[in-house]
Amino acid sequence: TSSEDILLLVNGVRHKKNDGTLYLMAERIAWMPNGKDCFTISYKYSDIKIQKISPEGKPKIQLQIVLHNNEATTFHFVNPEGIEKQLKDRKEVKELLQQLLPRFKKKISKELEEKNQILSDDPELFQLYKDLVVSQVITAEEFWTKLAPVRCPSLIKTLNIPT
Q1: What is the pLDDT of residue 107?
Q2: Which long-range contacts does 18-26 make (Cβ < 8 Å, 24+ apart)?
Q3: CA 134 → CA 23, 53, 77, 131, 143, distances in Å?
Q4: Centroid of chain to Cα 14
Q5: 16 — alpha (psi -120 to 50), left (phi > 0) or beta?
Q6: Which of 25, 60, 135, 146 has the greatest count of CB atoms below 10 A from its CB?
Q7: pLDDT digits (tens, 9 = 90+) for 104-159
């Protein structure tokens, strides 16, 4: 490893049937196979578009990193202490990434910032967004142009939605 600050180190993380350790550092996420002394996977946070996690109830506890070029890498949490520890490990990685990734976004549009603010100010609307958009019942565009303005008419002006 380098002299970078390690913010989180998680053992028991598998990638393509190889066990290893996942490192979250100040500016990148990296994975090192057991028995090696160098990273075989390393992504700068600024290159990461999104993270995805496997749905609850799935047998594998996974986290997927999707880059801006749409290349994806999946990490499988396999801590020998069992599923509770695997879930805890993944949650720690997911939550730290949720804090780190926004700091490295190349460009966040003003509209996206406004939408994020609206969702953080209205927990019910945020839940509706998760229920409908994240589960792919409707698109984000449909949500913001059709559904959200009905619930919150002030959004029409805020987001410049044509009436």
Answers
A1: 47
A2: 19/78, 22/75, 22/93, 24/93, 24/96, 24/97, 24/100
A3: 27, 12, 23, 6, 11
A4: 18
A5: left
A6: 25
A7: 875 455 567 778 888 888 888 889 888 988 888 888 888 888 888 777 776 666 66
